[in-house]
Design brief:
This protein has 3 helices and 2 strands, in the order ααββα. By secondary structure, it is of the alpha+beta class. The chain has a two-stranded antiparallel sheet with strand order 1-2.
Length: 98
Amino acid sequence: MTEQFTKQFTEAAEKMKQFVPQVSFNKNGYEIRAQMLEMAQTQLWQDYHARWGAFETKVSKDGNEVVTKVEMPKVPGVEQVLEAAEKFYAFVNQNTKK
């Protein structure tokens, strides 16, 4: 009876393997670089939204006129994302042996 139960359990486990996702802990270079780009983009947009919440308004007097100057944060572009991604990637690749 125990052998039959073990056999059935083993067969059921084999059938369930197709429903269990494959987990890979090693990423290739493309996946790592894509993750660095995603991290850089996320970081830049978080910085942008923080600056957006505190954008600057200046009111000054120029002669007889009151001048209002509003400075909005710059939207991060591709160049800024790539620069930030390179910094993240360089940090990951740095040699930590001493």
